[in-house]
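A note on notation is needed here, since sequence and fold are reported together in a single record. The reader may check this reading against the record printed directly beneath this paragraph.
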Amino acid sequence: MIKRDKTIMIGCDYQDRLFPAVYNTDTLMDKTLRLMKGLKVLGVPVIFTQQYTKGLGHTSEAIREAAGNNDYLEKIRFSAWSVLKDVLPSPEEKPYVLIGGIESHVCVLQTAIELKENGYKVFYVADCASSRSKRDYKLALKRAEQEGIIITSCESILFELLEEAGTETSKAIQRIVK
């Protein structure tokens, strides 16, 4: 079981210009907003990356607002590891990394693999990621699993981080997921 004080989220390239091109856009946005709101309630930090911002635009304003974070790391490489390695807490400090974003089979997958190779326990939040095609999305999840990355969902991970019911925090999370 992961612990919220030992967890961080990487939001890969949730950029405005990418959303219209991906499979299952509405579900992706809905689940990502729920995840970001929940992580904010739980105090789990989120780091956003942006691929070639000049051409692809910024992280969705709704997602930034839900997370309470306007900061991002600019990248050109598909994997975000090169820009994350100097800002991420060590695997000893925050061993658990949640990851989601666009595109599942490129930036998200490559980043997840490199995070795992560098000692992090990576949780791929499947309903908070997508690709242009359903096939590529499903192949990304299969490859991630083959690499030893844990596949999970928005609701599952929020309740795992929450740990218990009957608190004000649990009531807030329940409102978010319903």
The longest strand covers residues 121-130.
